[in-house]
Predict the 3D structure of the following.
Amino acid sequence: MTVAPLARFRRACLMSFAAVVVIVWGAVLIGVRGLERRTIDEASADHRALAQILVEHVGSQIRAIDLAALRLRDVWHDNPAQFAAEVEKQKALLY
């Protein structure tokens, strides 16, 4: 049984079309995977940067509280009558 030339041509066109579709979808999947990896990497970098900012902020707050406590200690030792006023002053500075 022989296949007509037109049928061969149609089969060749369909096979070519199928190959192009597979290649295009393969390229799309590779692009999506790369984009996904880049997005995850960028999110990780952002996460690390935010964590560093939080660490610096908390450290700054702890240093401020420590300085306020040292100041209150000095006022308590030097002039206990001014302690309450200094506490209010330090509270206002810390908040």
